[in-house]
Amino acid sequence: EIKVGDLSKADFDQLARVIESQSFFELDNVYPKDAACADCVFTTVTVVRNGLRKKVVHVYDDVPLQLWTIHRTIEGMESQIQWETLFRP
């Protein structure tokens, strides 16, 4: 399913500040480092800054506070957006 929605510039800028304040670009790429799980729910956060893409995946167990903060901030903002479905397979 593909959905689109609008986010204000002010909210986008605040999200960028949260991501920077939580040192997202210094986080490891996978948590936990030795993660291997066939039936786990994966949480992935991908950020692009100055053309560079960074992806952090959380598989199970404890999540670093920085990643938890970013993920929960995104979820909170996402819940406030009016989404329009463009495509349903």
| CA-CA gap between termini | 6 Å
**Coarse structural class:** alpha+beta
Total strands: the figure is: 5
Low-confidence stretches: none
As laid out across the biggest beta sheet, the strand order is 2-4-3
> Which strand-content bin applies to the residues?
25-35%
Helix content: 25-40%
Globally, the shape reads globular
Q: H/E series, N to C?
A: EHEEEHE
Instruction: Give the count of helical stretches.
Output: 2
For the sheet with most strands, the description reads:
3 strands, mixed
Radius of gyration: 14 Å
Q: Mean of the pLDDT scores?
A: 88
Outline the structure in words:
By secondary structure, the protein is α+β, with helices and mostly antiparallel strands. It is built from two helices and five strands, in the order βαβββαβ. The chain has a three-stranded mixed beta sheet with strand order 2-4-3, covered by helices on one side. Strands 1-5 form a two-stranded antiparallel ribbon. A hairpin with a 2-residue loop joins strand 3 and strand 4.
